[in-house]
Protein 1
Amino acid sequence: MKENVLTETWLNHTFATTLLSAACIFLFIRWFLTRPRNFPPGPFSLPIVGYLPFLSKKPFLDLTKLSKKYGNVFSFRVGSKNVVVLSDFLAVKEAMNSDVFLDRPPDVQFQGQSDNISLASVNGSWWTEQRRFSVHILRNLGYGKTKMEDHIKDEINIILAHLASLDGTVCDVREVLVPSMSNIISAFVFGRRFDYNDPKRKYLDERLNEFVEYIQWFNMKTFFPWMKPFLSILKSGQFRKFEETTDKLLSFIRKEANNHKKSLDENHVRDYIDSFLIEMRDRQKKNNISSFLGKFSVFKPEEFI
């Protein structure tokens, strides 16, 4: 009799546990697969991994096929995050002109070992202020105008001259294309280009390549935020290297800013750094606390004002 009671109790507990587990799994799947209200259409996504298993090594081709089926604005799930894809110019233009789309994912954190807060991971008024300032300054420096075209044409001529000097010798064009593209940006940020053999050019490109390599790890944290504790343990070495690379890049930029400060002429703005330093001084004079001063600034006010 006692054994029958124990068996019945065990069966009741087992049934209750199974029922509760099934209910939890059902609710989890229902929550995962349910799209937010008024969300763009899109393909079916699996629990936990989302649509990742259906993407090939050339995801841009997969997204193009999906746009033909679901339209120029569609969605799917990556990990535990909903992703909206804009696949035509008009949709991208509309989004980029709206303040609603200015924020970045809250789980993205690009932070080095310094006390400064990275603007790459903040939102709100600080980011809006920097974005508007950057667009304004880049336009003044020739972004979207013939001046920018001149920079690109000059760099192309240098590439062609370099390739011609090889006299048909086999080479890896990436060794030329990467620094050439970087030089176009350098012309706006630093006010000059760096020769291919310039130690600064090589140092900057090496740090940027490292940055791109290590930053891929953050995609896991972005789309699988629940994996952060495990990733921090498994990838602690990668994270440390990312911090070191970030700090080396910041150190390189600060050295350039110091050189700019010594020859700064407010009547002759040469590049983005000049514009930023001038803006910092103006804000300091007006005692205007903003993203140009304090922990949000790449440049420390006490060093450059």
Protein 2
Amino acid sequence: MNEYYKNLLPLIHTGFKNSIVQYTKIPSFSTETAFSCQAVNNQKIIIANTLTNSFWYTDDKKNVQLISNSKIIDDELFELIKSLFNIVSSQIRPPEKQVFGTDGETFYFEIFSKDGKSNTGKIWSPDKNSAMKKLTNISDDLYLLGAGANINSYIIKNKIKTLIIELKKISRTLPQLKKMTVLTENQVTELCIFIENQIEKNGCDHSLKNTFEWAERNEINKADLIDVLECNGGFCDCEVIMNLPENCSLEIESGNNEPDYKNPFKTPLNFQQTEHKVYTKALFSSSEYNNNNSYTKNGELLIPAPFGFKPKKRVRKSVHFFNGTESELPSEIGIVKEIIPTNGKEFAKKIRDFKLESLSKFSERDAEYYLSRIEKIEIGKPMGTYFMEITGIGGTKIDLKIHKVIFR
């Protein structure tokens, strides 16, 4: 996936050097798009870029060509866009670089300061009626406006004004995320210099060997370091040098999530159970995906760990994980396999009968949601899980998601 982004972004962001605001939309199954708002020669413009084909699905990337258009916009719309993106980039979490992608759409929102530093927010496939869905709809309209579509900018302005009011109300109800500094600005510089010197002597073996050597010498927590590196695209020594941001410290959220005793697995409250529904598939661990932080034995039945459950082995902070029903060890990936036909009640009891602490509250409703997410997926396909923060008028809620995984 890193190679995908490294090759895609310079192309889709062509002409974005002077961006003040920037939006990038990356679908799983259609063509990537992006727009940039800029002030050029006392004029405010939107540059709208797309590609002739989906970059991901085209085998020969050299055949993918850029399609770029631009449109002059008035000062009021320009300032409204800046205000909206400023609020958004502060309310949603920065993008976390992952080894795999998911089916759906990923949206990136960036706003740049005068010195060129950026603040970025990321959303994945927001719920239909959420404030974040309104945001992505407005952003799509702005892209189409820049691409030359016949869209009334007055209507877009009113939508932005309304959403800004809604987001400001929401921001007053959001809990403040606790941050932990892993590397100071000076330590980032020292780490990169150390790695550069080592690579000049010995080359890069596509591991984090030199990074870990420096961390051990400087008594840096290895698990926290891996988390912050992965969030910034540092999966080997040379990527640490290329991808770590300059002139700033590196922080991660402390991640102290309190368990939810009323809804421990965060099964969506709007999920409707189906009476007498029979299911024939579940998720199991596979040795094929041991590189994706899978510590369970091959063929072990997997259930999402409850919200706030601390894994017994290290997993990435950017994803949630399944627990093995025998070992209670974590796995980031599960494989769809056939099971003896069952219903939610029978399956929930089976899971509770394993007598594991993390699965002792697994209810019939939790079981039906889990099984219903898997039933339509093909046998042998990999799936992952995470908790989605959904921002709406009433504040922020957290829902469990179980999704198909696309390895890039």
Protein 3
Amino acid sequence: MTESTMPGRGTPAPVRAARHPGGAARGTRRVTVLGSTGSVGDSTLDLIGRNRDAYRVVALTAFRNVEKLIAQALDLRPELAVIGDPDLHDRLAEGLRGSGVRSEAGASALIAAAAEPADLVVAGIVGAAGLAPTMEAVRNGRAVALANKECLVCAGPLMTALAAERGAALLPVDSEHNAIFQVFDHERPENVERIVLTASGGPFRRCSLAEMRDVTVEQAVNHPVWSMGDKISIDSATMMNKGLELIEAHCLFPVAQDRIEVLIHPQSIVHSMVAYRDGSVLAQLGTPDMRTPIAFALAWPERMAAPVAPLDLARIGSLTFEPADEARFPALRLAREAMAAGGTAPTILNAANEVAVAAFLARRIGFLDIAAIVEETLQRAETDAAGSLEEVWAVDRRARTLATQAMLVREDSRAGAGAGQPVPSSKPSAVASMS
């Protein structure tokens, strides 16, 4: 095993030699999928199902979708299937009876699944709920295909330091960070001038604030390019997903904050770019299909066939770009301010966003209230350095309490203010006071 300066803020992390990651050349690779019933899990298992001789599934986990988990386990026959909700364990055990698949349930079982002997752990649990299992995989020195951006947002310095200490490789699966990973000069990062994260702009790219005031849940989850889960789709609509990706990129790659940019690219063909000091700009292009970055992680450091449509640039005809508008999409500004403040500010940002998005999906607040709740929570919460995962969780809990309070005020005020009208905050601009 050799060392290089990727990924992390200049901190060495392992890069395995050019061989099949499962051990001997062309050997079977053992894979655990955390969050197997979500969109990333679906795509991962589709690829594994097409390459059954090359991959052996060790463990599959889900939180409540027990019927889908049963179907996946009966198809791929992992050694272990875990359901996060303990009340569903009886149904899981019944559905797997006679299959030879071991069943377990509960939060501790999810964490234990991440520690099962595997060559690769796909971290696909959405939100901060994926942090503890993913950290356990890193603690055990696993290669981690990181599809959960919240892990690095909430505990980036802890995770990258632990990865370096335990020899765990962090392989980004987000299409943007995977693109950067593929074209970044990991051996000579000093040659990198800047990173450019591309964004589709979401379903409201051309909408005014007035037009976004009354948008429905159905409109917000209707992404023009990508097929994703509800929470990630809402994050794309607010552009909070790109804000979280700014923070994630700063954790993964040794590039200064002010050299990480966001560029709107509606076609989602150029997945990101890396500009070098000699004027060269390297970009990774591809048909928008999550199976491409997942296939990269599954086969790394080699390549595998993926059933994605070939990129036909002649048919597409043109690729367009435009600057991101932080006035209409304040989530980008809030994420930059949280990144600059450092410490636990990104944890607070993420916790408040999860509360606000859940409330919007439950039709309790308006679309514009999401960013307003995040901003108010950032203003009210205290930030500091977090030296342990327990401290991260404590900050997360406090932030969720504050965000819930802000959400309830907006929910109670909506009838008087108008169904889609966000309740104005009485506080000044966001995170500057915390730094």
Protein 4
Amino acid sequence: MSSTDMENVLSYIGEDLRKQTISFRVPVEPQQRLAVTLRYLATGDSMHSLAYCYRLGVQTVSDCIKETCRAIEKRMLPVYLPKPTEGMDINLMPDTTDTLIVVTCILHNMLTRPGEAEHWLREASEDVPLRG
């Protein structure tokens, strides 16, 4: 994913990911939260591996991924995948698939059907030409 695409995603969800600084901890920045989530979705690395790579706690990585997925679903899903209405032309996979739409679809499916997450990641990596 290009830095422009990442900034675009952050423009939608950055405020949802921003945490308050308190006296005994510095929060994980929204950019790092998104990076951890995208790496988890792209590679399927374990939470322990990601925690080690990003120097975060395992529970922190888990929380980052859940919160980021929820934020993407809340803020981006209505924009990129609106609920279909009668008479609406439904074309879910156009020839030029935007990376953000693919990521949003994967996240939506992971949140609504967590047992099928591996299937969606495999299908996306095999069938959809991602730009980046």
